[in-house]
Every structure is written in C-alpha cells, then in structure tokens.
Amino acid sequence: MKHNVKYLRIVILSLVFSLISIVGNAQTHTYLEKNKAVASELSMKYGIPVSVILSIAFVESGGGTSKSSTVYNNHFGIVGKNNPQSKYRSFSSARECYEAFCKLIVKKNYYTALKGSTDFSKWIKAIASAGYSTRPKEWMRRLNLIFTKYSLSGIQKDQNL
Q1: CB 54 within 8 A of CB 32
Q2: Is 134 exposed, middle or buried (0-12, 13-18, 19+ CB in 10 A)?
Q3: Is residue 83 packed enough to be buried (19+ CB in 10 Å), middle (13-18) or exposed (0-12)?
C-alpha cells in the first residue's frame, strides 16, 4: 500500500510538471507570435534578421514577463534617462522599443558588413562583441537556445512560428 501511494505521488508530480512545461512553452510562443509582425517589418526596413530581433527581445524581456517589458515597454534592456523610476528607458509601445533597438544596431560599426545577412551566429557574435551584454558568452548561449527551441532559423522565409 505504501508503495502505491509513493508511485501515485510520482505520477501526479510528473503530470503537474509536464503541464507547467506545456503552459510555459505556450506563453513564450505567444510572445514570439505577438511580436513577429513588427519584427518582420523592421527586419525589412533595417536588414536585421527577424530571428535576431525576436531572440534578443525574448531573452532581454524574459519572454515578455520582465518588469522592464511589462511596465516600461522595454523589451531590449535599453538604458535611458527618460524614466526617473528605473535606469531603463520607457517606451509608449513595444513597437517603439523594437524600432529603437534597430536604430541602435544601425549605428554600430558591424552593421554595414552584416546588413541583409541572415547568418544568426554572425549577428549575435558581432552584437555581443560590441558590448551589448555584460555577460556575452552566457547571453549568446541563451540566444542560441531560443533560436533552436523555437525554430527561428526559418522565420525569414516562413512567417509562421
């Protein structure tokens, strides 16, 4: 009898963890789905791959759950002076923030050489090397994880996540 209770407990915990995992993946997928149109538009305008824009936004905003993204519409961890409550810049919309990120990238030395390239690895190495992250190796590891987990490699050709 004691063995059956233990087994039942393990089965229930496994089901709960599976359900949490499914819900978590749906939430993060929702973030990508919600922002892919603006990322696609800005990709065409600035020549930065959609996969780069979305994966950086996802990592920097915790899949849209961070305080910066929910309170300040800051999905990229952009620092600024227009917000007295935080070191992070405040935006009126997610779209405004996405555009500000692209405008920051356009000003960087590596941009001219990479503009129009869809090579995700080259983009994130260049961005990391230019000091975008304080922990570039960990940051690139997390970006690659999102890129792989959500199959962002085909997003340039196929707009369906």
Answers
A1: yes
A2: exposed
A3: middle
pLDDT in tens, 103-143: 999 999 999 999 999 999 999 999 999 999 999 999 999 99
Cβ atoms within 10 Å, residue 9: 10
Residue among 86, 66, 87 at smallest CA distance from 75: 66
Listed in sequence order, the residues at least 6 apart from 78 whose beta carbon sits closer than 8 Å to its beta carbon are 88, 89, 97, 100, 101, 104
Tokens read off for 48: 């930065």
pTM greater than the 0.85 cutoff: no
